[in-house]
Every structure is written in C-alpha cells, then in structure tokens.
Amino acid sequence: MEIPTNLKHKPVIVAEDYAHIDGRSAYESDAQGLSLGLAQWNDRGRVDISAKVWRHTGEKWSRQSEELPLHRVLDLAILTCRAMRYFREEGYRYPGGYNRENPVIDRVGLQGDAMTVAVCTGNDHIDGDIALFQEALARDGELLGERIRVLKALVAEL
What we know:
alpha+beta
C-alpha cells in the first residue's frame, strides 16, 4: 500500500511493506508503512526530520498514525535496550523484578544531562505488570534480538 504524499508529513524514505514484518502482527497489522520525512510541524526556515508509523483501517488512512522526531525514535531505542538489559542481567536478583529501595535502573547521559530510566512505582499494579513485561520480553526474545542485532551492525557501520 502506497504511503500518502499529499499530507503535512512529507515522506522521503519509506518502508511501505511494514505490515509484512510488524512483529507478532505481521500480515495482520494496521501499521502499513514507516517513513522518514519532513515533519508536519515544520515552520518557515526550520526543517525537522520525523519518523512516522502509517496506520490504515482497511478503508482509509487512520488518524492514529504517529509521527515522532528522530531523536525521540532513538531515545525509545535507548530506553528499550536498557530495559532489555536490565531484565536480562539485573532484575532477576530482586523479588518482584526490581529494587524497591531504589527503582532507578540507570541514568543515560544525553545533551549535558541524563535520561533517568526507572521502574514506574506509581503504577498500582507494577508487580503483576513487571511479570507480564518480562514474559513478553522472553516470548519475543527472538523477534527483538533480530532487530537489536541489525541495529547494532548498522550503528557499528556509522
């Protein structure tokens, strides 16, 4: 399915066959494509690049399509990798999967400050949700691992 080019997000690089590889939703996904392009929020004299997930209802392009600035896409990748590493290497040491005395997992330095990666203790169901999260990581290990290996190789090439 061809990604629309007449909307405010202007695609430059596209993956129009994303529905075929969308994780466990492959071939059944409403996420029909990904694109990197000129952001819809660009002002005169300022051009930002964004990533967009294009969703299609089967009849029309969905308003649930999401557009993110590239730095946020990378920040999500950093957060994902750090969470995966935590549950693989550290979380199992604690009852409930995390240190209740210190729920901060890491501080990742970015732009002269740091992104705090922590367990969300404000979640009233955190114990059960951590167990479900860990189960999903284990179930999707091969799926995620393949993407992490590809990402690692591409980052090494950069």
